Amino acid sequence: MIVEQVWTGNAYRNFNYLVACPETGDALAIDPLDFTKCLDVAANRGWTITQILNTHEHGDHTGGNKGVVDATGAKIIAHKDAGKRIPNMDRGVGAGDIIKVGNTVELECLDTPGHTMCHICLLAHTDQPALFSGDTLFNAGAGNCHNGGHPAELYETFRQQLDALGPDTLLYPGHDYLINNLEFTLDREPDNTTARAMLDQYRNQDPADALVTTLAQEREMNTFFRLESPSVVAKLVEEFPDLGDAPDPKSVFLKLRELRNSW
Ligand SMILES: [Zn+2]
């Protein structure tokens, strides 16, 4: 499996992806908003885009579909319940479905509601696993829930699915929000030395050559994985006494999600 992370350079800071089979040159385009860049990358690498996967129905993830289909005839794949929200869908997928790319690549679909209720993440069971997480999980952050999502569902997705991923799993998110998210982590957990070091090292990184984190790193510096960190909990309890002295992880998650919206 070959992965190309395509930086769009747009205001929403979208990442698009091409996932290719090294034997056949078939490629899957994930959320190819900047279809011109995606088509150029494929042409330069000698790949043919045969499928598109939209992680979810938002326009900054689906807006390039037509451009890719017009150029390549690629088939559009998305969550089985996305229905009319994604025009011209060819295949609806759910939990456990497999997307094959060429001869060598198989990607497992995870049904990951929360950011929207029709959100798919893709998990590659490669030697080093990889997660294409759309707007569910970002570097040092989590998706918002104010355009068709539900924070409690996002919590369940984290608890039941993301928590189960192996520590060496590589994370390929739908946007570059690393720096803002690390600043939020440090606002919530000022003594997080991993987040501090990462912010110092990557503050001026070129998103066209972005850091790819592992789930092990995320668990150290992503607040939404640190619901039982004593300093995260202590600061929340101090600021929001209504949470009680020992809030459960779900209450912590929901409060963090709410704070991140207005931060
Ligand atoms: Zn979105």
Descriptive notes:
- The protein has helices spanning 35-45, 59-62, 65-72, 151-160, 178-188, 193-202, 215-221, 230-239, 249-262; strands at 2-7, 15-20, 26-30, 48-53, 75-79, 91-93, 98-101, 105-111, 120-124, 130-134, 137-138, 141-142, 170-173.
- The chain has 263 residues and is α/β, with parallel strands linked by helices.
- Helix 5 runs antiparallel to helix 6 (193-202).
- Zinc ion binds at residues 56, 58, 115, 135.
Give the rounded overall mean pLDDT: 97
Order of helices and strands: EEEHEHHEEEEEEEEHEHHHHH
Hetero groups in this structure are:
zinc ion
Shape: globular
Helical stretch count? 9
Q: Uncertain spans, ≥5 residues at pLDDT below 50?
A: none
Q: How much helix is in the residues?
A: 25-40%
Strand content: 15-25%
Number of strands: 13
Question: What does the oligomeric state look like here?
Answer: single chain
Secondary-structure content class = alpha/beta
Strands ordered across the widest β-sheet: 1-2-3-4-5-6
Largest sheet descriptor:
6 strands, mixed
End-to-end separation in angstroms reads 38 Å
- Rg result: 18 Å
